[in-house]
Amino acid sequence: MAARRPIIAGNWKMHKTPEEAKELVTAIAAGMAGKSFGCEVVVAPPFTSITSAVAAAAGTPIGVAGQNVYWEDEGAFTGEISGGMLKSAGCSFVIIGHSERRQYFGETNETVRRRIEAAVRWNLVPIFCLGETLEEREAGETFNVIRSELTEGLRGVRPDDPLRFVIAYEPVWAIGTGRTASPEQAQEVHAFLRREIGGLLGEGFAERMRILYGGSVKASNAKALMACEDIDGGLVGGASLNAEDFLGIIREGS
Fold it and tell me: How far apart are the C-alpha atoms of 89 and 44, rounded to whole Å?
């Protein structure tokens, strides 16, 4: 199996003013200073705090992500943000298709696909999120849901570099609930995803692509999750809002 460098990505959601973003990134960078970590570290602040986070991350190993991107480059699209805007603000990653975007803001597999296309066009690394609800899991539909979201999200998209395309499996039933998929449950879905990606983009591509777990990741469960063969890091929510908590996950994920 090809070696894959894990990614620990913090999704701040609707938290942190520019001043708070600067303070948090500075604290994370201080905790990483002088140490060698085996993982890549990314933070995803709200749009208004991106430039502060980028400035605070300058000269550190910390990358910055947007939390969404629109598929058009400019125009009369109130409330949206383009790939060019994220790029010029200093982002190198962008989260796409998060379950909260699907649940609260009407994202569909089709709009997710179009956003992924925009990210690839602007040379932003997509963190493409997918996952099943509790009802879908209990109905035995997990793999059907995952396959549909994956294939429809990648329809017509042909990324040429597996190191610049990331998948995040987020069991919706474990986000913000305190529940976490067991390492065995998470590994089962990650292995399925890697096989499906192999069928779509080639086995070599799939072996090198990072697949993150996103579902109530914290320092206490990060080590067991990331010890699984097909789990290549975490998309972290609440625990990324505190420097010590996030640094604990970074240590366990390295």
Answer: 13
